[in-house]
Amino acid sequence: MKFTKMQGAGNDFLLIDGFKYNLEEIVPKIKNLCDRRFGVGGDGIMVALPSETCDIKMFYYNSDGSQGEMCGNGLRCFVKFVYEKGIVQKENLKIETLAGVQYADLIVRDKKVESIEIEIGNPIFNPKDIPVNIDGEEVFNREIEIFGEKIKFSTIFLGVPHTIIFMENESQYDINKIGRGIEIHPLFPKKTNVNFICVKDRKTIKIFTWERGAGRTLACGTGSCSAGLVSYKLGYTEKEAKIITEGGDLYIKVLENGVKLRGGAEITFEGEVDLKKY
Question: Per-residue pLDDT for the chain (278 aa), expressed as one digit of tens each?
């Protein structure tokens, strides 16, 4: 099976043409393929498939083999992949995902995608729909106890569930320990991504990412959008902000019913694997 290895802000993925390969044969192999020592290595895998309602369908899988609704950094890689591989050569794409229809605008020069802007819409704030086992109409500035420490958090659904932790400084919390603890906390029946953020100024946020099903990663696109949206809602930042991730800078703009995310995506290498060995 041929694949393309890509990265967006340090989030790395394997991209597969599902028009050529059987999805049912790929899915059981995903965890082993994403293993960084014994496989190809990656934060997740995306498969391009035909769609009856959109230009293309994206199936996304985390590195532990679980299926995710979508991935923002992954979506940028995905649209570059389908465009440059000739699967769908449109500069304005409509993508079917498990999180609903997503839209992408591509900046193309000499048949190469240089930059991508995606729109992630329909944020959910009601805890019953995120879901979060908590009362109220939204989950802003609530309190959770992790390892004996009380921590304030906010949670929304934007593509996937995202929990936002504001930090006074970059070393306030053990990202890996607290991130894992919150991800699997009973408060979140479907688990949650955890985003630790420091607001640098009204237009700049630094973010550290713990992803549901993948662990510590260098960045998360929907996490960056969620951080920008929550920070704006709480009055800490403007509608437009730069998000400094550990893998590079992203740019967001809060919309009336969603968030726009702008950034690049790069092909790291092309490869081929024998699925029977995984």
Answer: 999 999 999 999 999 999 999 999 999 999 999 999 999 999 999 999 999 999 999 999 999 999 999 999 999 999 999 999 999 999 999 999 999 999 999 999 999 999 999 999 899 999 999 999 999 999 999 999 999 999 999 999 999 999 999 999 999 999 999 999 999 999 999 999 999 999 999 999 999 999 999 999 999 999 999 999 999 999 999 999 999 999 999 999 999 999 999 999 999 999 999 999 99
How far is residue 5's CA from residue 87's CA, in Å, rounded to a whole number? 17
Give the span between the Cα atoms of 113 and 265, in whole angstroms. 8
Domain spanning 2-122+263-277: which CATH class is it, in words?
alpha beta
In whole angstroms, how far apart are CA 147 and each of 134, 268, 274? 19, 39, 43
| Torsion sign (Cα): 85, 91, 96, 97 | positive
8 A C-beta contact, residue 174 and residue 27: no
Rounded distance between C-alpha atoms, residue 120 and residue 139, angstroms: 20
SS3 25: helix
Tell me the two tokens of residue 269. Answer: 């290498």
CATH code that applies to domain 139-256? 3.10.310.10
Nearest to 79 by CA among 62, 92, 66, 61: 92
Residues recognised as catalytic? 71, 220
